[in-house]
Amino acid sequence: xxAPDAATAAPAPGSAGIVVxxxxxxxxxxxxxxxAVDPSYGVRILAVGADRHGIAGLERAERAGIPTFVCxxxxxxxxxxxxxALADLIGVHEPALVVSAGFMKILGPAVLGRFTVVNTHPAxxxxxxxxxxxxxxxxxxxxxxxxxxxxxxAGVDTGPVIAQTAVEVRDDDTEESLHERIKTVERHLxxxxxxxxxxxxxxxxxxxxxxx
Length: 212
Description:
This protein is of the alpha/beta class. Helices cover about 35% and strands about 25% of the residues.
């Protein structure tokens, strides 16, 4: 775990705290770090957690002076034990919201029962769930795809949708070119939704997720 860097911008008084979970490069995390530097955003990143060591997402957090923790599935006898330990590590920080930003593990009842968790997905759910959403959209011949921010539930990309942005699929798109355009709008959408959800909360009624 890293100590806060004295050079890091101080959060605005009364700003809402979040914990961000990552598994890889952390580009969405970086968008949140950049947004949180502005006190008017009203959100501070309390900690960044990961499911493995040595990833760029943790390095981004450490450079920004944000505390980090790692909770590896392989360190526990079963997934339930890992899920409970992860919930406890998150709970130390008492976040208003947990953000899954490229976190590639399915969260269990210990985490989901204690925290509201939001996630981004590079497709317009419920279309193209899973790990290969961009590739699947191209293979299907979709003309429009996009990104979704949703509340995480026990399924895979099945939680209630909070917000979506459409992205055109061009005739000459490759998986890489389309994914890059999706990532651009995804970062903007994530920053907007996380800011509002952390400050105001998320309500889910009959699968309709709203931010007051």
